Amino acid sequence: MIELDGVSKWFGEHRVLTDCSTRVARGEIVVICGPSGSGKSTLIKCVNGLERIDRGRIVVDGVSVGDRGTNLAKLRARIGMVFQSFELYPHMTVTENIVLAPIKALKRKRAEAVATALDLLEQVGLRAFADRYPASLSGGQQQRVAIARALAMQPIAMLFDEPTSALDPEMISEVLEVMASLALRGMTMMIVTHEMGFACRVADRVVFMDAGVIVEDTPKAQFFDRPQSERAALFLSRILHH
């Protein structure tokens, strides 16, 4: 479903990704972790073309992301993306935020888009907040709305870029619960996160990065029980005994 082959990227003189290769099968949940500055967010942004790669290739559901002829807007409409910052439109209600893209990009009828939005809000536990504005919501609630907004496009996969890093500790679990329920429904996901307990619970595989390189790409149990590299073992010992 998602294939990365020899992906490299530079920001000026600084090489941020070096020969990164991995695969994500349909329905698979892959957690990408590693120390700050290891290239995790850059890697995930390359998957839907938000960052252009300098070498290698990325293929999503048969579409080559880097090809000049690829319609990136169309591709992004099929891949949900949830960022650290919620990026909701402050002047629109929760429902309006969710229906905007389906009406504009997918040409959905308004009534249908609103019905879908309300159903998704029910799923993320926010049906009662449909007519509120983002400013009146907590960070955790805003992030759940952002997830519902991404799901309204009926994506074939979801990308999460540290979706809980801007949240207070008590709000983190409510967002992770929504993501865990997506996992149970078989959504293909790539998740950049420091929440190792969550990774241990939902991931099929863990990709560990350091200094722009994929150091490990292993099944979850192996990563947590028997990390192959000293670097991953050190990272885990620091995070898990934090």
Gyration radius, in Å: 18 Å
Low-confidence stretches: none
Number of beta strands: 10
Q: What is the number of helices?
A: 9
- Globally, the shape reads globular
What does this structure look like?
This protein starts with a strand and ends with a helix. The strands form 2 sheets. The chain has a 6-stranded mixed beta sheet, sandwiched between helices. A 4-stranded antiparallel beta sheet has the order 2-1-4-5, covered by helices on one side. The chain is globular, with a radius of gyration of 18 Å. The protein has helices at about 40-45, 70-80, 95-105, 110-125, 140-150, 170-185, 195-200, 220-225, 230-240; strands at about 1-10, 15-25, 30-35, 55-60, 65, 80, 155-160, 190, 205-210, 215-220. The protein has about 240 residues and is of the alpha/beta class. It has 9 helices and 10 strands.
List keywords for this structure.
242 residues; alpha/beta; six-stranded mixed beta sheet; four-stranded antiparallel beta sheet; 9 helices; globular
Helix-strand blueprint:
Blueprint: E1 2-11, E2 14-24, E3 29-33, H1 40-47, E4 55-60, E5 63-64, H2 72-78, E6 79-82, H3 94-105, H4 110-123, H5 139-151, E7 157-161, H6 169-184, E8 188-192, H7 196-202, E9 205-210, E10 213-219, H8 220-225, H9 230-240
Parallel strand pairs: 3-8, 3-9, 6-7, 7-8
Antiparallel strand pairs: 1-2, 1-4, 4-5, 9-10
Helix pairs in contact: 3-4, 3-5, 4-5, 5-6
